[in-house]
């Protein structure tokens, strides 16, 4: 069981703590990649673009180009049919690529599916697609400001002695550069114990945690952030129903004649969640007194202190002393000694009588009697 010293010193029982940390996070991603013979920049592969604490870096895409509003056959196998009656049995719910018309039409010369009304041609998302390998070297710049309102304490993760040139050149390393605010995406994935190729292919959610645990009795410079990395959706790796992370979005265009068309993109990506937590402590007389008394009480010192006060400093100390202690005099000692002697003699006499009684009865009997 931890002793009073452990509680008071190591656990800082002399401090009052503020756990209601206030935080703001701004992010910026940099890097270029190639995908489908196109050079992609931040505006192409980061969403949303506002630089918030939650964003996605797209690493793989399935594109369905030149979609227009119209009628076309479904691409999902479950909508295979041989007659209109089969298509009418399906309900137009949330599945599929559009509104079912109830007609069975040709998907190919040898295969028929139900017809839909919607964006055509429909998406085929079962085709293989490569990942954007350059994404591993993309960098993430994180600017974090925190505040502990109880102490009116404010600080940011950018070191005060860090110059703009140093920020551009540094890369986070837990051993050599633990306070650099720029993170290589591949390093973030690796430090979370994940494989970048697999994560980029299926998608996933990564957490960059910034911890602020500060002792405000020390220097302002000693309050520094600690970065840790984890995969937040690791349970999805064990689930075959909806593994990874993906979403769809569309880019809309207009032709010269005013007709609308779009490119549908099914995007697989690494979602980054920047999570900030922390607490701060500072010396305060109230918890110091409370925990000091508690520490003394736990080892019995409290009883001793109470006796000292009651026996020496309060009115009625003589009465309390008389109740607590018994005065032993020489007469009392002689009386106690005499009583002990009489008791000893009485016990001795009783023992002799018992022995005499036992000696008259051997416990044997005579055959001639």
TrEMBL record:
Binding site for ATP: 28-30, 139, 246-248, 266
Superkingdom of origin: Eukaryota
Residue spans crossing the bilayer: 293-314
Annotated compartments: Cell membrane; Membrane
Gene3D superfamilies recorded: atp-gated p2x4 ion channel, atp-gated p2x4 ion channel domain
UniProt keyword annotation of Transmembrane present: yes
Cysteine disulfide partners in this protein: 72-120, 81-104, 87-114, 170-180, 214-223
Protein name: P2X purinoceptor
Organism of this sequence: Pleurodeles waltl
């Amino acid at each position: 069981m931890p002793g009073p010293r452990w509680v008071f010193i190591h656990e800082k029982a002399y401090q009052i703590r503020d756990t209601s940390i206030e935080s703001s996070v701004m992010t910026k991603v940099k890097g270029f990649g190639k995908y489908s013979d196109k050079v992609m920049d931040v505006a192409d592969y980061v969403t949303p673009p506002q630089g918030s604490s939650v964003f996605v870096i797209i690493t793989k895409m399935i594109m369905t180009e030149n979609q227009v509003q119209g009628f076309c056959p479904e691409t999902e196998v479950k909508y295979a049919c041989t007659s209109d009656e089969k298509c009418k049995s399906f309900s137009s719910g949330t599945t599929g690529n559009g509104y079912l018309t109830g007609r069975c039409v040709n998907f190919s010369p040898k295969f028929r599916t139900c017809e839909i009304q919607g964006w055509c041609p429909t998406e085929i998302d079962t085709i293989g697609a490569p990942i954007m390998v350059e994404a591993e070297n993309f960098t993430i710049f994180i600017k974090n400001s925190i505040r502990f309102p109880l102490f009116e304490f404010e600080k940011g993760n950018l070191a005060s002695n860090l110059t703009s040139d140093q920020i551009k050149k540094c890369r986070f390393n837990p051993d050599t550069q633990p306070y650099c605010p720029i993170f290589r995406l591949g390093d973030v994935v690796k430090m979370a114990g994940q494989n970048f190729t697999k994560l980029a292919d299926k998608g996933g959610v990564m957490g960059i945690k910034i911890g602020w645990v500060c002792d405000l009795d020390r220097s302002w410079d000693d309050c520094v952030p600690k970065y840790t990395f984890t995969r937040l959706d690791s349970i999805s790796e064990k689930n075959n129903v909806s593994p990874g992370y993906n979403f769809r979005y569309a880019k809309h265009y207009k032709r010269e004649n005013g007709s609308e068309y779009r490119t549908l993109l099914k995007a697989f990506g690494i979602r980054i969640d920047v999570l900030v937590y922390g607490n701060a402590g500072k010396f305060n007389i109230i918890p110091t007194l409370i925990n000091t008394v508690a520490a003394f009480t736990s080892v019995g010192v409290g009883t001793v202190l109470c006796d000292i006060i009651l026996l020496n400093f309060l009115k009625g100390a003589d009465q309390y002393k008389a109740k607590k202690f018994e005065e032993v005099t020489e007469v009392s000692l002689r009386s106690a000694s005499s009583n002990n002697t009489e008791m000893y003699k009485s016990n001795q006499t009783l023992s002799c009588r018992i022995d005499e009684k036992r000696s008259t009865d051997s416990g044997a009997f005579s055959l001639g009697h």
